[in-house]
């Protein structure tokens, strides 16, 4: 058996402080913007940023705490600094379609200038235009126009009145307009009584004449209206001329300031035309406010007529150096895609184009948007809206649910903003593959996958970078400097996280937590520089805060409520090893596995599976066990047996195939009648040919059995059997290593199941197999006799 023992030298994995070329981290340089051990992901991210084509957005895949978010920020800011500063995005009033505000792009910083200039000129025009219409020149020209047209209309009316009077009628103003009234010889209107006394011919004559005059009245009124319209046209032309004389110089001066921006020049032309067309608004605004203060208050609340000349700076890039980098940590619909705000006023909600607000997608335009996939997907409407925006390369601001209203309402429909940005989405592998497999558009929109690993090779280069990373955190967060011994302890802790002595963990969040806690313990010990003992104390205390379940299970074992033997021998009973997961803390404990065999043809019965407590991997392991039995013992005769295997006192379900070796040994012990050592536990997966395969959680399993043996008393005979292929995963606690070194505890490694039989049963494997073969032969003979008796009884029945 000693040939299978693992020597003390193979258990040594501790990194020596002497291998480091510094005494404290104060001597090291910071690497704030460099990522460690993620060359594949870094190259993918760099390539994705260099591809300026649609669909080449980036999905950063990896477990939480591997530095994805920090690296994304650092890389995008570095890349953005080399890119052009994007233009400001403005929303301005659409003079032809007021409900559809239009987008205007201007050089960065020019939006603020234009907004201020527009506010100034409108304020100036509100003063200058009324003043111009109060001048003598305007009044003189106005009177000339009125004097030209007023006599014409008066003369026309006088001539018509004279003509009507000669024909015996007087024109009288009523609520229905001018009406011809018959008069007598004295020029007085004929009364109704007098009219009734006239003969019928006379009355008919008056009626006919009245109708003719009524028709002529319509013609005359049309002519007078035409004269008034001509006069009004000339007055409007006069007002327009004066308006242009005031507005044009001001607008021209402003156009000269922005002559390099054609979009602004075109907009100012539209502003000038609109002001001239609405010159009365500038003339009458003050009068209206004085006559109706309540109306003025209402206009000021909801935005008066002059709001149309304001500028809505939708995206302000004046303070952006290079391209923008937006890290949206709360990707709700409105935070991402903007919204149209409204004001509650007099019981109604009002809005205008100045209340259109941008989202992070707009602010990141021309640069980068970083967002977490889980947060995005859990917010309603966000994922579908984002896809639509990326596919169409534009985004329209609309409030959530507008398309679902049962009754459409009149609202603003802002012009869409063209999109030119790169999205970096961060998520877990589960989310990535979920989207890749079930969303047809995902692979077309996120063509770059940056895969972050949770571990890196433990070599000299990465160890040096790891130490520099520790130095960076210390300087960034103002911690105490770490000694070389403390850094060596952190390196061992990092390897322990990976479960592989040849690897270092890239789960930097967990590493940073130990750095913080080590700093606190060092402070309580009065250390100027954090020592290795402070690091170990931090690790131990972190485990202590999470190991309540472990202590409770150990208590149950100590009180013999959970039945376990760590000495003696038993047939068909073996100590397997399990790993318990309690949040972010895992620990190992032995579990009693029993096997019973008897006559029958049902094969191996997995009690856990029958009770629906077995996971798929464990069920597969039992099937592999059956395959091994068939291949080993049923080459010449059928396998005739029934056997049951169970994890005793297991109430929470079983999964994994690391108990396959234990189950095989227990079953062969039951068949051969050879007892199993109870002072040795075993873990290992196995294939159908009996080859031992590596398993996970090997350190936790060994330490778990060691603690049970330690509590019951170490004998020097106790130990654990593990797969040979797990030797690189051994990173045991110092207490276990010391016990092995002092020959108080033993570790064995095996490559085949026959080696486990030799250790556990204390007999040569061939002897075990022979005994099993004999028992199976005995079962087969009993089975044959039963078949013969059944056939004889059947024949006798047939003869009768």
TrEMBL record:
Name assigned to this protein: endopeptidase La
Active site per UniProt: 658, 701
Protein family according to the UniProt entry: Belongs to the peptidase S16 family.
Documented EC number(s): 3.4.21.53
Tagged with keyword Protease: yes
One MF term in the entry's GO annotations: ATP binding
Domain of life the protein comes from: Bacteria
Natural source organism: Halanaerobium congolense
Example GO BP: protein catabolic process
